[in-house]
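Supplementary notes for students who missed Thursday's class. We covered one full example, reproduced here. Read the sequence, then the structure, then the short commentary at the end.
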Amino acid sequence: MSRSDESLKEFTVRRIKETGVLPCIKLHEKDDWVAYAQAMYDGGARALEVTMTTPGALEAIEAISGHFGKEMLVAAGTVLDAATAREVILHGGSIIVNPCVIDDVIDLANRYGNPVFSGAFTATEVFTAMRSGATMVKIFPGALGGAKYMTNLKMVFPEVNLIPSGGINLANCADFIKAGACAVSGARTFMDFDRIKEEGLGWITKQVAAFVKAIAEAKKDLPDIP
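Structure (token representation):
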């Protein structure tokens, strides 16, 4: 299926499942966002998230989406209201990400045909996100439930697309995929400022590439969900 035959939601789900990773750019001050995005792209990411807590987040979203076009989907994270969601879309953002279920944000994203990843943790919250129209459900904090918690959720909601975030690292990302997650996400695991200071943005490229490789290996032999 070509991009022209797919809706934005279908294209987004396919691309994120292909790479298995949604790295986040979370900065404390304005910087060269495109350079960070390029480092992630070079590592194999085809979607990334810019948290709205980053200074100049809308400017960053516009710059990255303008630079990469369809080659890199740009998500806005920590979107808390419909007005912000609309601004994200107007600035070129493709994906809206909530930290929890926020109905008016989900409604607006669906009205514009944009995928929306709703945060959730409990089974009730996951079901509420699904019923509200979330494209994917971002399990946060993922490390709190652990990898096997993905299996618990998939057992009762086999159709849900789960993206755990928070405490996901190179040592456990494959476990989350094998347990039922379709991809993983995170900020600190891809934005270690000490390592970046020592090695430059090339460290981000190596980190993303290592995740992509580990997840691809995990997907070669997925166990059946009970």
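Commentary. The beta strands are 21-25, 47-51, 73-77, 95-97, 116-120, 136-139, 162-164, 184-186. The radius of gyration is 16 Å. If anything here is unclear, bring it to office hours.
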